[in-house]
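User: Hi! I have a protein structure encoded as tokens and I'd like to know what sequence might fold into it. I'm fairly new to this, so please keep things simple.
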């Protein structure tokens, strides 16, 4: 199967625009040389995180989200009720430093979601984003050839670039019928030696996910080629049915590090709690040591509430799956009711996918819906894709109202 973006890139020229107000400046004058002739090491400059800047600019100016990647946000009282925890237990919590690797009870609870792995294989981290950065910095070296599934949440690629890796895209196949994993292109990419693979399933932003058989083949490839594998599983628990849930990569090979957390599947992004699991103890120790330089340990309130949420995981995730399924039907009937606007198919797994914009570009559509309907759509250029799709986030409980606002904006 031919790789998809090459053809589109040639047909439509697209560039992530420079963030407003970031005007290139002349470099400041050099300070006097105090290095004794030694070259001063420089860090590559970080570009803006385009998607996060977009949310920072617009998210709180609108009434509804059409592209959110998290499930309906819970309240503290919801977590306590779901897990039947007396409020007093939260009030009596001591707010001292917590343990470096994470609260032992929380790590034990997390390990129950990873068949064959133990609590010592788990590292609790402040926010999935921190987990991702710490793990990739521990796993990758400058010059490594690293295969990254694209389009992707920007940090999955950017951190490898900052480390000085040779980053090679593994694009999701896209055509008018939707999205598909391009196994042939991965096969071709592996004709040259690679050090590591970075994947994200269920996938943000396209919603693709391997079948359990394909997943086993991917594990076999990782083993065969001796790759280190960072498997971002942040949307785990949100497949339409248990049979489509993947066994975490870290349970299938010690070459993998699996990432999950509370933000998306549990609707607890404000707790900023994530975790890494790997059977590679030496690597896990190195990541834990790196955490001393970022946050040292996680926060006590998040660990406490996170433990309660995990104890209530079954009903909580089932509730979020139901919301995603219902919103998928609402979105499909919205697309039918408004012919010529967008083409939509539900994600294979997870809360997000992309709808194809049928006339005009995605940025103009998002601007109109934001200005006339007070609802936020994410255009696909923020994922370094041509500006022809908008991300659809199906996890929110008020999605039907968001769709009404979209329709209102189109009539205005
Ligand atoms: C694929 C993926 N990984 C990691 C993250 C980071 O999660 P968090 O924002 O909770 O730190 C996100 C957030 O959108 C994501 O989509």
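Assistant: Happy to help. Inverse folding works backwards from shape to sequence: for each of the 412 positions I chose a residue that suits the local structure. Here it is:
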């Amino acid at each position: 199967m031919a790789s998809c973006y090459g053809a589109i890139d040639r047909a439509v020229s697209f560039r992530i625009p420079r963030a407003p107000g970031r005007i290139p400046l002349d470099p400041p004058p050099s300070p006097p040389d105090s290095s004794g002739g030694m070259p001063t090491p420089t860090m590559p400059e970080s570009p803006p995180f385009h998607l996060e800047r977009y949310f920072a600019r617009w998210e709180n100016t609108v009434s509804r989200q059409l592209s959110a990647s998290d499930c309906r946000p819970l309240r503290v009282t919801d977590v306590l009720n779901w897990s039947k925890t007396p409020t007093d237990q939260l009030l009596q919590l001591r707010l001292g430093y917590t343990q470096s690797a994470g609260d032992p009870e929380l790590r034990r609870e997390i390990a129950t979601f990873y068949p064959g792995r133990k609590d010592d294989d788990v590292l609790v981290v402040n926010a999935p984003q921190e987990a991702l950065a710490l793990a990739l910095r521990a796993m990758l070296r400058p010059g490594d050839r690293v295969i990254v599934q694209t389009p992707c949440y920007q940090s999955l690629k950017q951190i490898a670039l900052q480390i000085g890796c040779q980053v090679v895209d593994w694009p999701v196949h896209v055509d008018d019928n939707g999205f598909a994993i391009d196994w042939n292109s991965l096969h071709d990419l592996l004709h040259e030696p690679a050090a590591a693979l970075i994947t994200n399933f269920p996938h943000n932003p396209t919603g693709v996910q391997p079948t359990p058989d394909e997943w086993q083949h991917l594990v076999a490839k990782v083993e065969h080629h001796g790759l280190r594998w960072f498997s971002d599983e942040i949307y785990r628990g949100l497949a339409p049915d248990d049979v489509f849930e993947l066994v975490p990569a870290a349970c299938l090979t010690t070459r993998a590090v699996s990432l999950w957390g509370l933000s998306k599947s549990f609707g607890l992004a404000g707790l900023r709690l994530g975790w890494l699991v790997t059977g590679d103890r030496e690597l896990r120790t190195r990541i834990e040591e790196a955490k001393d330089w970022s946050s040292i340990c996680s926060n006590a309130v998040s660990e406490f509430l996170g433990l309660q949420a995990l104890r209530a995981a079954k009903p909580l995730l089932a509730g979020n799956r139901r919301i995603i399924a219902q919103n998928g039907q609402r979105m499909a009937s919205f697309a039918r009711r408004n012919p010529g606007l967008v083409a939509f198919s539900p994600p294979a797994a997870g809360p997000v996918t992309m709808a194809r914009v049928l006339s005009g570009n995605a940025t103009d559509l998002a601007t109109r819906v934001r200005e006339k309907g007070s609802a936020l759509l994410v255009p696909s250029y923020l994922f370094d894709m041509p500006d022809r799709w908008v991300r659809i986030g199906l996890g929110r409980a008020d999605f039907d109202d968001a769709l009404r606002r979209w329709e209102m904006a189109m009539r205005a």
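A useful reference point when you look it over: The chain is about 40% helix and 15% strand. Feel free to ask if any position seems puzzling.
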